[in-house]
Structures are given as C-alpha cells and as structure tokens.
C-alpha cells in the first residue's frame, strides 16, 4: 500500500546520496508546478468543483505558495509515495490538495488517466517541459534590474566626463552585474543579503511569481495543442514540441507570450479598458465587443459562456478557455499579418525575423496593423536604409499626435517608428497610456531585430503551405 509521506520527494530528488540523478531544487519545483497546472486545467468542471477548485483559481492562488513547507510553501499540497509502482530508478507520488486549508486533503488525479502518478521529469537529460528554468528567470530579472539602473548611470558617466566611453562602460558594467548571478546559489537568505550589500534588491518571490506565470501559460498551451491540433499550424512554428513519456508537451510560444504580456496576462473577470468607455475585455485581452469582434463572441458562446453575463459581472472566464480562444485569435492574426507582409514583399518568417513576427502579429491582435507600417518595413528590409524606420517621435514637432482629420496627415512621410509613436500618443491623449507603452515596446523589439537579434527555434518549416483560418 501507499506510504503516507510528506517530504521524501524533496529530500530524495534534491539531497539523497542514494539518488545518482539528483536535480536542482528550483527545477524540481517548476516541474511540479507545471504538472499540477496541467492536471487542474485538464479536469472537467465537475471534477474541479469536487476538489473545491474555483474558476478563478489561477488568478487568486499561487501553486508555489501551496507546496510542502520543505519547498517553501504552506503545506496545502503534499505528496504520497507509492511503493507499489515505484522502482529503484523511478519514484512515483500521488498529489493531494487541501484547497480550503482545513486539513482535509483530496487527491488531484491526472485528467487523461486517473491512475497516472507524478514522477519528476528527466531534468537535465531531455528538453524541459517549461520554457525557462528558474536560473534563466533570475538572469532575466538581473537584466531588467540593470536596464532600470542604466539611465542614471549614463547621466553620471556624462557628468564625470566618461560619456564617450558609454558602450564600453555599459558592457563592463553589465558583465559585472551578471557575475553577481553566482551568489544566488547561496540560497534565498544568503543571496538576498549579499546582493543587498552591493545595492541589488532582488527578491526570490518575484522569481517565483514570474516563473509561475510562464508555467501556467505553457500548461494551458499544452492543453490547447491537444484539443486544437493543427488548427494552430502556423503559430506552432514559433514554439517547439518535446516528448515527455507518451505525451507531447508544447514549449514556449513567443508570439502568444509576447502578446499575453502586453495584454496584462489573464483576468478572469470582464473589465473596461477605459472606465465608462464601454469597451469590455476579458481573459488574455479578448474583446467582448460583438460588433467588432464576433469571432471571440461566438467562441465564448460555443464553450457555454454568455458574454452579456460576463460584462454584467456574473460569469468568469476559465484560464484554459482564455488561452484556447486567444491562441485561435492569434493564429488568425498571424495568418493575416503574414498575408499582408507577402503582398508588399516583407518576409516575417524564419529565425532571423522572429522579433519582427512578434511585433506585426501583436499589432494585428490589437487591430492596429496597417499597410503603411508593412510597406515601410518591407522597404527597410529590401534596402537596409534606416530612413524607412525613422525615429520614435510623433509627426508633430510638439510631441502631440497628428490626427487623421488634420490635412497634414495624408501628406506625412511615413516611417515605421513614427507610426508607432504617433498611434501610441493618440491613445495616450485619450487616457490609454498603456497603448503608448506597448508601442514603445514594439519600437525596442524592432530595434533589436534591425540589429540582428533574434530567437532560435527547433524543428521549424517556415516554407510549409499556409492553412486557412477564420479572420
């Protein structure tokens, strides 16, 4: 029979001298969070209700915080070792949840096979089934921290007469900054104390929060891929597939992740983009405007939702359903953007153009992708002349947005970056500053693309035939 044990999964897989395949503790926790997310998203409504898991679980709970105390959590999740199926090489565990924190635990079954127990992935020997390791997330946080410090450092360098050496100082400073990454291996308390001594305020809770957001998206994308299959043919090129036992797990999809981040992640409840404006949105930035976005409206109704009830605040959107619809919308928008690009001679495919694809697909998702930007991007790609990119400033010298009602609008010399800045400022002047920030993000991504930066993918075939999708 199963032995009721709470901690050996952690001790055995990260510390035990009897285990030749010990793994990094952060990697083990990330693998567990992915597996639990995947299980919850695959359960039926009735199964989740029986376990006490609400529709807004992923927006109100952190799985990291529910893990056993030995993993840094509060103990609302425990693991029960099963010695009947475990072997010397592989250990298997039942996952139990105490959702209400009342001491009453219930088993969390695998949605595809209730008898399937949890065993850690073969971490280190196969591609991991989540997109970023904890260490990579820590490195990203350090990059972000450095970028926040850089503007003040540049001002200081200029004041002390070192402005001419800015590129060299930036490179040296960042490498020193990156070297500090090594102290993270001293553990949470020690690393935080050491980093603070050098002026870096890095909190491990931030790493866990960022990690869990990514893992949840990938678990939901995994479920979406299983359900939709080749309906996501085109955007699937921007992620990978990896085998995990008899399952195919979907890897990071940069198009979905990029747009999801700009949409502010997932929101279970409907909200107005501008209070009182009547523009209702839900999930991963899904518009509830039936006239302008009938596709989303129809998909919600097919899944049993009433969009009017959502707007009234009486219905929430489940995380996995939001990812499914958003993935379908993104597929449609990518096909649209690719078709527009091909019409004007712009190539958005391949590793080299991955950042470009992210921007134009997101603009299409926003409903803000026009021929002017595509034409200017095509001319830059063809000639290499940066005049087609321009600068990130509006068309008006005073920094205000040039509007379509102004006679000068039709006479403007279009550049990519000015279109982004002008459109963003137009929305900012209407109280939607987030759009301007998003356009600034697009500008930075296109700058990286123009400098030759890109993301590499595996097993891609960008020359495959386009498959039609609903627009």
Summarize this structure briefly.
It contains 17 helices and 8 strands.
Explain how this protein is built.
- This protein is mainly alpha-helical and 471 residues long.
- It folds into 5 domains: 100 residues, no CATH class; 69 residues, no CATH class; 35 residues, no CATH class; 151 residues, no CATH class; 55 residues, no CATH class.
- The protein contains 17 helices and 8 strands.
- The chain has a 3-stranded antiparallel sheet, with no helix packed on it. Strands 6-7-8 form a 3-stranded antiparallel sheet. A two-stranded antiparallel ribbon has the order 4-5.
- Helix 6 runs antiparallel to helix 7 and helix 13 packs across helix 14.
- The protein is globular, with a radius of gyration of 24 Å.
- The N terminus and C terminus are likely disordered.
């Amino acid at each position: 029979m199963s032995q009721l044990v709470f901690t050996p999964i952690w001790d055995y897989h990260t510390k035990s001298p009897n285990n030749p395949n010990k793994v990094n503790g952060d990697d083990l926790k990330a693998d567990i969070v992915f597996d639990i997310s995947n299980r919850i998203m695959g359960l039926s409504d009735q199964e989740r209700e029986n376990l006490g898991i609400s529709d807004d679980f992923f927006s109100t709970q952190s799985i990291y915080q529910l893990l056993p105390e030995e993993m840094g959590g509060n103990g609302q999740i425990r693991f029960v070792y099963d010695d009947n199926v475990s072997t010397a090489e592989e250990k298997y565990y039942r996952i139990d949840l105490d959702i209400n924190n009342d001491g009453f635990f219930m088993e969390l079954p695998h949605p595809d096979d209730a008898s399937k127990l949890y065993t850690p992935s073969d971490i280190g020997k196969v591609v991991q089934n989540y997109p970023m390791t904890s260490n990579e997330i820590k490195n990203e946080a350090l990059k972000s921290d450095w970028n926040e410090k850089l503007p003040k450092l540049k001002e200081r360098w200029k004041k002390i007469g070192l402005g001419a050496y800015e590129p060299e100082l930036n490179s040296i400073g960042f490498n020193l900054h990156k070297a500090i990454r090594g102290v993270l291996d001293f553990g949470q308390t020690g690393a935080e104390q050491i980093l603070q001594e050098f002026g870096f305020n890095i909190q491990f809770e931030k790493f866990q929060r960022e990690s869990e957001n990514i893992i949840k998206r990938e678990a939901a994308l995994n479920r979406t891929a299983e359900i939709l299959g080749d309906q996501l043919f085109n955007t699937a090129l921007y992620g990978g597939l990896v085998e995990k036992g008899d399952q195919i797990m979907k890897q990071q999809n940069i198009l979905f992740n990029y747009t999801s981040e700009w949409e502010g992640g997932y929101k279970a409840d409907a909200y107005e983009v501008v209070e009182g404006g009547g523009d209702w949105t839900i999930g991963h930035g899904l518009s509830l405007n039936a006239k302008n976005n009938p596709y989303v409206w129809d998909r919600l109704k097919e899944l049993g939702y009433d969009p009017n009830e959502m707007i009234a605040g009486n219905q929430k959107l489940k995380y996995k359903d939001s990812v499914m619809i958003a993935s379908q919308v993104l597929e449609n928008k990518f096909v649209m953007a690719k078709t527009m690009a091909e019409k004007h001679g712009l190539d958005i495919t391949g590793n080299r153009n991955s950042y470009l694809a992210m921007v134009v697909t997101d603009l299409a998702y926003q409903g803000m992708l026009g021929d002017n930007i595509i034409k200017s991007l095509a001319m830059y790609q063809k000639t290499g002349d940066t005049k087609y990119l321009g600068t990130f400033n509006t068309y008006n010298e005073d920094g205000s947005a040039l509007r379509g009602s102004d006679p000068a609008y039709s006479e403007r010399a279009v550049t990519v970056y000015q279109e982004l800045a002008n459109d963003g400022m137009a929305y900012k002047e209407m109280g939607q500053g987030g759009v301007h920030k998003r356009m600034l993000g697009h500008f930075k991504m296109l700058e990286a693309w123009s400098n030759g930066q890109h993301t590499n993918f595996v097993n891609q075939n960008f020359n495959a035939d386009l498959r039609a999708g609903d627009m």
